[in-house]
Write a structure and sequence with these properties.
By secondary structure, the protein is mostly helical. It is built from twelve helices and no strands. Helix content is 73%, strand content 0%. The two termini are 24 Å apart.
Length: 306
């Protein structure tokens, strides 16, 4: 592709007067990508998350051993070696294989919590911001009650009531994760509900439900995506904390928090049993934080073109 062709396509994407909605959307996406790619740390975070997705998708191929079946007689608590890259645990299971399969459970928790909590927070926040009055007061006071408790403590209370298990842990984390999203959605709604754009839609006869669903919620999506991405690290740590306390994923599931809990007894002599899953949590959490910072810079509508 010649330099002239590249320049013409770039000029088409950056046009001040797009000829179609497609051109406008592609132009906004291109500008956002330029902002994002200018942040090297954000690219590192994106690569970490892509690696997590690849590992989770191809765990059956990448893991050399079973994540649940070990050799208790011959392979118990072996140090890292060519045969077992991250060593083995107290049941003779390969730690590298368990971490690889544990990536699936990490994504399972993160995706389900985001799918459950983000829409709830978006719905509550936009309704409160648009309706105002007693509706806003009641919904926001409920939100304040949830925000008054530390997330892990509140999740522990819900898991204790629901019972241990990965599904109940997901529900508990989702219940404790939606209030910040509601706050963000309400703040975005308050800034646009009296705008000329919304007034015009009201004059056209659109119902409040349609205005909230079709015209206000889409305006809140970019801020919500940024907050959800930044919260992924906290979700992972909360899930790991529940697993560490025995209230999350149950044995023999290869969940990283539960792996740290089983390895804490050997932390002084067989340090690799707890260190390997701890390093996995650290790297993935760092990746989500770096990615979230990059998305915040790229999707901020107040940012100019870099």
């Amino acid at each position: 592709m010649s330099a002239g062709t590249i320049q013409s396509r770039r000029a088409w994407l950056l046009s001040d007067r797009p000829a179609s909605r497609l051109q406008a959307r592609l132009g906004r996406s291109y500008i956002a990508w330029r902002r994002f790619s200018a942040n090297r740390l954000a690219l590192v975070g994106m690569l970490i998350i892509i690696a997590l997705l690849v590992v989770a998708a191809f765990a059956d191929v990448l893991a050399p051993y079973s994540p649940t079946v070990g050799d208790l007689k011959n392979a118990r608590l072996l140090p890292p070696s060519a045969a077992h890259w991250f060593g083995t645990d107290d049941l003779g299971r390969d730690i590298f294989s368990r971490i690889v399969y544990g990536a699936r459970w990490t994504l399972y928790v993160v995706i389900l919590v985001a799918v459950i909590a983000a829409p709830i927070g978006l719905l509550v926040g936009t309704i409160a911001g648009y309706a105002g009055g007693w509706t806003d007061t009641i919904l926001m006071r409920i939100t304040d009650i949830f925000l008054a408790f530390p997330k892990l403590v509140l999740a522990l209370a819900f898991v204790a009531a629901l019972g241990p298990g990965i599904e109940n842990a997901v529900i508990a984390i989702a219940i404790t994760s939606w209030p910040p999203y509601a706050r963000i959605a309400r703040a975005e709604t308050l800034t646009v509900r009296n705008s000329d754009y919304i007034k015009a839609v009201q004059l056209m006869g659109a119902s409040p439900f349609r205005i909230v669903l079709r015209h206000i919620m889409p305006l809140c999506i970019s801020s919500l995506i940024i907050r959800v991405t930044l919260d992924m690290a906290g979700i992972i740590l909360t899930a790991a904390g529940l697993g560490f306390l025995g209230l999350g994923a149950q044995p023999p599931l290869p969940e990283w928090g539960a792996m740290i809990a089983s390895g804490r007894r050997f932390i002084l002599d067989q340090w690799w049993v707890a260190a390997a899953p701890g390093a996995a949590i650290l790297i993935v959490s760092l990746g989500f934080n770096l990615l979230g910072d990059g998305l915040r810079d790229a999707l901020d509508p107040r940012s100019g073109d870099q």
